[in-house]
Amino acid sequence: MSQLAIGNPVRFQDWFSTFGPRLQNISTGVCNETLNAYLADYRNLNTRTCDLHLDCILTETSESTKAKIASAAIFLGILPSMLSMMGPSMTQLTLLSARRPLLAILIALGSTAFCLDRLFHIETPADILSMVQGERFIPRIRSSRWGIVVSILEYLSIGAAVFNVINLAVRVGDYTVMSFQCNIWFFPLIWVHSVTFIFLLVAIPFQFSAIAKHIRNRTGPTPPDHVDAGPEGPDDTQWTPLPPRAEWASPSGTFSRQNSGTSVSKFMLRELTPGLRHPSLKVAEVPQFEPWVAVLFGVGSFLAAFHIILGTGWFSSILFLSPGDAIRVIMRFFASSVVCRLVVMVELASMKSQEMPRG
C-alpha cells in the first residue's frame, strides 16, 4: 500500500492508472528475478539492483508505450516554466509578508514557483503599489465579522492549495521512477518545498528594511468612517488617505511603531486581518529599496531561476506516466497556483495607493 503521508521508499509497488496494470505484470512476471534482488537491497540508495530492474521493465515494454512515456516526460519537463508564469513575483510576495508573513509563506509553498520577468530585474514598490489607468479600488470591509470570514476563506483556500501540492508531489514520487536516480522518491517533494526556502531566505532579512517597517506602521483595521468605496473623481471626499492607527501617533505628529506592536497579540491581529481591512498605502510615502535589499532580491532572483532549471531537469526524467496522467498532474499544480495568485492579487490590490495615477 502506498504511504502517501510520508512517501514510499520502495519503488515499483505503485503506478499511475494508465500503464499500471501492464507495468505491474512485467515487474512481477518476466522481471520477477530482478524485482526480488531489488527488494532485498532497496534500503541502499546507491544499489544497482534498482537500475537493473528498471532496465528489465523497459526492455519488456513495447516501443509505443515507451514513446508515450517520453511524451509525458516532455509535458512534465515544461511544468516548472509554466508554473513560473502563473505564480507571484518574489517582490510581490515579500511586500505581502511585511503584513501577513504566515499567509505569504503558505502562498509560496502553494505556488511552487516565482514569476520571473527576467533575471535580476527587480520591481520597485511604485510598480507594485501604483494604480494603473482604469483600475478601480477594492472597497474596504467595514465589519470585523466579515473580515474574519474573508480571512478564514483565504486560509482555507491556500491551505487546500498547499495540501494539493504536497499530496501531488508525494504521489508523483511514489508512483514513478526518476531515470537518473532510480531509488529515490522524494525529489518532487524537495522541489515544491525549496521555493519556500528561497522565499524565507529573502523575506526574513527584508523584515528589517525601511519599507517593511513602513508597511507594518500602516497596518490595522480600517476605521468605519474611512472606507474606500472607489473614487468617483478627483474631488471625491472618500479619496482621502486612510490615517494610521492612533496608538502609533507621537505628540510631534509623526508616526512610530510602539512596543505593543511586537507582541504576539499584535502580530496575530495583523496576520489574521485581511488586506480589505488594512489601510492602503501612499506611494509617495513608501521608501524605496535600500541597496542591500536590491542585492537580496538579486540573489533571490538567481535562486528562483535555478529552482526552475532544477525542476525542469527532475520532472523531465520521470518515467512510467502516460500523457493523460501527466496532464492531470499539470492541471492539479495549475489549480493550486491559480488559487494562490488570486489571493495575492486581492491582498496587493488592497495595499495599492489611493492616489489617482498622474498623466
Describe, in plain words, how this protein is organized in 3D.
The protein is 55% helix and 1% strand. With 359 residues, the protein is mainly α. The chain has one domain. It contains 14 helices and two strands. The chain crosses the membrane at residues 69-90, 102-120, 146-166, 186-208, 292-317, 329-349. Residues 251-261 have a biased composition (Polar residues).
Which features does this protein show?
two-stranded antiparallel sheet, 359 residues, 14 helices, mainly alpha
Q: State the end-to-end distance.
A: 64 Å
- The structure class reads mainly alpha
Uncertain stretches: 1-5, 223-258
Figure out the total of helices.
14
Largest sheet: 2 strands, antiparallel
Q: Whole-number radius of gyration?
A: 25 Å
Strand order of the largest sheet: 1-2
Q: What's the helical proportion of residues?
A: 55-70%
Please indicate the percent range of residues in DSSP E strands (runs of 2 or more): under 5%
From the spread of the alpha carbons, the general shape counts as elongated
Rounded mean pLDDT score: 83
Please give the domain count: 1
Total strand segments: 2
SSE sequence, one letter per element: HHHHHHHHHEHHHHEH
Transmembrane segments: 69-90, 102-120, 146-166, 186-208, 292-317, 329-349
Biased composition (Polar residues): 251-261
Region (Disordered): 220-261
Keywords: Membrane, Transmembrane, Transmembrane helix
